[in-house]
Amino acid sequence: MRHYDFLVIGSGVAGLSFALRAAEHGRVAVVTKKESAESNTNYAQGGIAAVTSEHDSTERHVADTLDAGAGLCDEEVVRIVVEEGPERVRELIEMGAAFTRQNGEGSPLHLGREGGHSADRIVHAADATGREVERALLSKTRANDSIDLLEYHFAVDLITEHHLGQHVSRVRPDVHCHTTNPPVATGDGVAMAYRAKARVSNMEFVQFHPTALYHPEGDSFLISEAVRGEGGKLFNQGGERFMFDYDERAELAPRDIVARAIDDQLKKRGEDHVWLDISHEPPAEVEEHFPTIREKLDGLGIDMTSDPIPVVPAAHYQCGGVQTDRVGRTSIDGLFACGEVACTGLHGANRLASNSLLEALVFARRALDPAVAYAERHDVPDGIPEWDASGTARPDERVLISHNRSELKRVMSNYVGIVRSDLRLERAQRRTRLLYEETEDFYRRSTVSSGLCELRNMIAVAYLIVKSARMRRESRGLHYTLDHPEPREAERRPTLA
Ligand SMILES: Cc1cc2nc3c(=O)[nH]c(=O)nc-3n(C[C@H](O)[C@H](O)[C@H](O)COP(=O)(O)OP(=O)(O)OC[C@H]3O[C@@H](n4cnc5c(N)ncnc54)[C@H](O)[C@@H]3O)c2cc1C
User: Fold this and answer.
1) Listed residue (10, 223, 219) closest to 134, CA to CA
2) Under 8 Å between Cβ of 357 and 133
């Protein structure tokens, strides 16, 4: 049994930013289920949205975020994040993060533009921003003697007073076939918090990225929105440029519109991908702007300077999550949530591109003072039970885990995708219920393994998405249903599980 003042689960931007600050106040353990860099953060391409130019303003970033959020953002939170963001970005730079400059070292930051932003405001490191942020944070973390970084450690569940036979004290009263997320993203944080009875909010708002690479060896690889920003055009397999049929902004329409348009084309035409073509742009510019994407595609035999790229929409980001207040406190005393696991009120019904790294940075800072105060007031209680594996055995049929996992992915892709309906959601609920019962039974009888824990967590997250989607009887932001195709004022509130 090890004792720390702060336990951080996860070594992405949220976990590491918090750990580095907390280390000034006590001993910190960062547990992470694979090697440290493996996280969504490491794959972020576009960048961090922050107002750093005199041609931009806080008001414009606030307005863009509220506009994307389709009436469900918490305006006060939006303001906090937008106002505090630039300072957090400056701290990252001081920490050694090397972002792209306009004219080499010492010159002003080069600011990119992404869908839904009314100004150039995306701070980035070429097309691999997350990798640079993760590198800078990890090197500081590794050099810090107050932090133990425990790799290949899997958090199974949160132990609350419930496990000690007491009342839980409260502060106040990828699951889809195509995904851009790395395999570590299985919703463990949301599932654990839900099992511990924390409040979970807005889970129906799953953002699909319109353009993930469609290739047997390329799953989970994102073709950045910036490719469309730089002139990339979408074609169906009949060679038609279809986006104008859906929106006058064509390829530069917001993500949800482009994703729905591609989904519609695939369903109507019975095809499995569309083409994204940027081969008409000068090769030197394509190479300069997209070195990472180009390298990846080259490895698969696709030359993006001359060939179109096969793409499909893919599950990308969860706007909902564990509900927090303005300083990252969840409804369970002593449990803070920050980053993609959290639902702070920033994104509402749809996330504005590049606002998520920003949210993680801002909330990691905001959670510090209350977390330090909490750690000072509380000792680790006696009687925390050791892991008890009695009555379990090594499962002889591990294949059941992989079967249930692929079945779950199919159910979610077929019935809880970009376009939903009452009937599809009902079906999904029945099937996830069955998978839940089978898996819980298997879990009770089996020696614990990461594969089984992940499956259990994915089922819990799927259940929450379906349940929240059924609760919302309108279409808003990322939630689009054929049975209730319009937004309704009476439904303009967060869902809560
Ligand atoms: C391809 C891609 C591109 C993106 N591009 C952008 C972008 O340009 N701009 C932007 O703002 N956002 C972008 N995003 C979203 C953004 O990267 C994420 O929302 C953000 O990085 C989340 O950070 P995090 O620290 O909350 O979680 P993560 O970075 O996912 O870190 C989670 C950590 O928790 C660990 N973990 C999970 N479960 C367990 C467990 N049970 N036990 C122990 N450890 C566990 C994981 O191993 C990992 O270390 C992108 C996402 C993807 C996938």
Assistant:
1) 10
2) yes
pLDDT value for 55: 96
How many CB atoms are closer than 10 A to CB 111? 23
d(CA 303, CA 169): 57
Q: Give the number of other Cβ atoms within 10 Å of residue 274's Cβ.
A: 28
Average pLDDT along the chain: 94
Q: Whose CA is nearest to atom 2 of ligand 1?
A: 44
Cβ atoms < 10 Å from Cβ of 74: 18
Cα(42) to centroid(ligand 1), Å: 7
135 is catalytic: no
Dig out the tokens for 219 from the structure: 């799953």
Q: Above pLDDT 90, what percent of the chain?
A: 84
- Residue ranges and CATH numbers for the domains of the chain are 6-203+319-377 (3.50.50.60), 213-315 (3.90.700.10), 399-481 (1.20.58.100)
Residue 157, pLDDT > 60, answer yes
Token representation of residue 462: 């799927």
The whole-model pTM stands at 0.95
Q: Are 436 and 464 in contact (CB under 8 A)?
A: no
Tokens of 173: 């009263």
The alpha carbon of 398 and the centre of ligand 1 are apart by a number of angstroms equal to 28
Distance of CA 336 to the CA centre of its chain: 17
For ligand 1, mutation pick of 31, 357, 449 (most atoms within 8 Å of CB):
357
Among residues 21, 199, 255, 366, the one annotated as catalytic is: 255
